[in-house]
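Narrative summary of target 7.
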Amino acid sequence: LYFICWEVGNVGDLYVILAVILTMNTAYVDQMNTGSQGKYNCLPTSIEIASNILDVDFSAEETRDKLGYSGNIFAPDIYPYIEESGMKYDSYTLIKDETVLKRELDKGRLIVVTFNNSNIKMFMDSNKQTQGIYYGEAWHSVLVKAYMDDCFLIDDPFSMGRKRNGKYIGQNMLVPYKYFVGENIYYTSLWK
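Modeled conformation, tokenized:
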């Protein structure tokens, strides 16, 4: 609810912003529910969450089946399926600070961030609750939906069925900007 209060200028806008946040909440997909290759489906699942928010038809499981291989999927492999769904995209690398990402979000775009999670261990939110769910060393993708103060609001599809307070642990996480800017991080902004 802090995000809503932070964004809203008057009571009339509250209902509009609340509707957007509720849509984002119902858009979440746990990548483990996307077929037999679910544990490798973070990128297509992040795109599926974006498609749910944008009201576009895109399925992580169907995309995996069309690609016809197991293991990790990388962004260039999936671009034709993004276009097929009716979404548009742009890709970026080597972003030095959060300015470019904030500008994309201000345009109403959603951003899939792909990074090597060996650089991100556990981190803490403002309530000192552990938010990071990363371990080991692997490439991983998440969806950046919004920003506030010094954090991005993300959906990480890697919940593996785990929930906290009735929601998936990867849903609506606040992550400090510094974790999502720099070298060896790849960005795909999506819009309708």
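The CA atoms of residues 159 and 170 lie 5 Å apart.
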